[in-house]
Amino acid sequence: MSDLFDVGAETILITGASQGLGRQFARVLTAHGAAVVLAARQTGKLKALEEEIKAQGGRAAAVAMDVTDNGSIARAIDAAEAALGPVTVLINNAGIAVEKAAVEQSQADWDAVIGANLKGAYFVATEMARRMIARRSSGNVINVASVLGFSVVKFISPYAISKAGVVQMTKALALELAANNIRVNALAPGYIDTEINHDVWATPAGEKLVRRIPQRRVGHESDLDGAILLLASNASRYMTGSTVTVDGGFLLT
Model confidence over 225-244: pLDDT tens digits? Predict the structure, then answer.
C-alpha cells in the first residue's frame, strides 16, 4: 500500500505555484519524491521556493508562465522539460478573483478572471496534452476547481462561473483524452486559510461563513495533501472526469 500514492517517478508542473495552494502542492509532492516545475508570472517567489525545496533534498525548477498567453505557456513548458524532463502530471492551479457586485463587474474584470481561470487552464491543459500524445506517453491533468463551481456566494460571480466551467472542462477533456491514456480530474477545495485571505476569518463576515461549514472550521492548506497525492499518483489510475471535493461539508448546506 505504501507504493500506491508514490509520485517519485513523476515530473509535475504546477501553475500558480508562487503562493497559497500551489506552493503547498509543491511542498507536499516534492516531500514525496516528485520533481516539480514551479510556474507563475513572477519568478521572484518561485526562486525562493525552488531553493527551499532543493535545500531539503527535493527536485524543483522555476519557470515564468503567463497562462493567458499561449506563447508563454509553450515557452514555459519547453523550459520545464529542458530542466527536469518530460512533464507527466499537470496541476492547473493558477487563478484570480475580483470581488464586486455583478452589476459593478467590468468587461475587463470578466476577461481577467475567465482568462486566467478557465481559458488559461484550458490552453495549458491542451498544450500539455499535445506533447503527451506526440511522445505516446500516458499523462495526468489535475484542474483546481472550487466548491463555488457548484454553489455560489455573492460578489464573485465571474469566479464562480469560471470554476463551474473548469468542472465541465475536466469532463470534456477527460472524455477526449482517455483514448490517449491521459487522465483528467479536478480538485474542488472549499474555504482554505491562505496568506491572501487569512485576516478574513476573524471578521464578522468570515465568522458567519465558517458557521456555514458543517465541520465549523476553515480548511488548512495541508487538508488538501491527501487529495492531491491521490490525484497525482497511480492511486487514482481508474479515475478520469471526476471532481474531488474537500470542503469540510460546505456543499451539504
Answer: 999 999 999 999 999 999 99
Class of domain 11-246: alpha beta
Cell triple for residue 48?
A: 525562493
Sign for the pseudo-dihedral over CA of 176, 182, 183, 186: negative
Residue 14: partners with Cβ closer than 8 Å, 6 or more residues away: 22, 25, 26, 29, 36, 37, 38, 39, 91, 93
CA 159 from centre of chain? 14
176-203: buried (b, 16+ CB within 10 Å) or exposed (e) per residue? Answer: ebeeeebbbbbbbbbbbbbeeeeeeeee
Q: In terms of Cα–Cα distance, which of 252, 250, 178 is closest to 216?
A: 250
Out of 122, 159, 191, 238, pick the active-site residue: 159
Read off the amino acid at residue 180: N
pLDDT (mean) for 44-51: 95
The dihedral of CA 124, 127, 131, 137: what is its sign?
A: positive
Cell readout for 123 is 490552453
pLDDT digits (tens, 9 = 90+) for 132-169: 999 999 999 999 999 999 999 999 999 999 999 999 99
Instruction: Domain ranges for the chain, please list them.
Output: 11-246
159 catalytically annotated? yes
Instruction: Centre a 10 Å sphere on the Cβ of residue 105 and count the other Cβ atoms it contains.
Output: 17
